Amino acid sequence: xxxxxxxxxxxxxxxxxxxxxxxxxxxxxxxxxxxxxxxxxxxxxxxxxxxxxxxxxxxxxxxxxxxxxxxxxxxxxxxxxxxxxxxxxxxxxxxxxxxxxxxxxxxxxxxxxxxxxxxxxxxxxxxxxxxxxxxxxxxxxxxxxxxxxxxxxxxxxxxxxxxxxxxxxxxxxxxxxxxxxxxxxxxxxxxxxxxxxxxxxxxxxxxxxxxxxxxxxxxxxxxxxxxxxxxxxxxxxxxxxxxxxxxxxxxxxxxxxxxxxxxxxxxxxxxxxxxxxxxxxxxxxxxxxxxxxxxxxxxxxxxxxxxxxxxxxxxxxxxxxxxxxxxxxxxxxxxxxxxxxxxxxxxxxxxxxxxxxxx
Length: 359
Known about the structure:
- It contains 14 helices and four strands.
- By secondary structure, it is an all-alpha fold.
- The strands form two sheets. A two-stranded antiparallel sheet has the order 1-4. It has a two-stranded antiparallel ribbon with strand order 2-3.
- The chain has one domain (about 1-359): Up-down Bundle (A middle domain of Talin 1).
């Protein structure tokens, strides 16, 4: 079906995605250098500025989608990005090198992320995230930022050194970094406009919902800055950065992206399909991080492979459901009736084994 689609539409999607990725990368680097020049701790930069900056494409796309009345793209982008971050990015990073979770701060943030995911799901239960709920999410973002700054000051020297090596060594004049940051914002605005317009046309051409396109195409596309940051950090052995970027980005997506969009647009409509399936998947995937991180405070290669396999299964389920394929029911029974319960039992057993070893 894509071969029959207007080449201009596909070109708009591709060009918009390139601008989003380029704008996100430039924004992260320029704001990081500005923060260093202002004397901000490199650890705090990594957990806030970088995590928020890599989520800038999600904010741009969600705001543009809501402004165009495409609620499915707005919600699908945020929820899908968070699922992609936890299952795909953490999984891929862990298969490159086991991720040692040294930070007390990151380990404390996992329960916080579970709480925020559940609260966001509850706020969406009525089918709409209103202005008041959006303001509450933004207040939560402010509280989280304060927590990150206070927690960063108490972090271990080894972790602080890792962040300083990545974010605290390059400095430039303020003027150039300000210009680059403004240019990056311009790229994000233009790229989000092209990407959202093209994605909505793709949805109509394929005859699927905007929510499905948001989950399968828009969400992975806007998460490419997170992919680059975490995977490169894993290759360089900066494992805390790989994990911290994912957790921080997910918190910003829920608190910042949904909060800003709901307040600015007078509320966000939440599709029923997202409430029934995608939000539960998000909460479940986030909860799964807790036993994974607590078993030796590391994400092993086999655990990373399991996370990747579940993202592939999630994407396959979306495709089967969107196409109404005959295999959908059988696939659902195998996934939800056997694979998920067995994985849960395995994670719980690993957690108890780790606790016994420590005891």
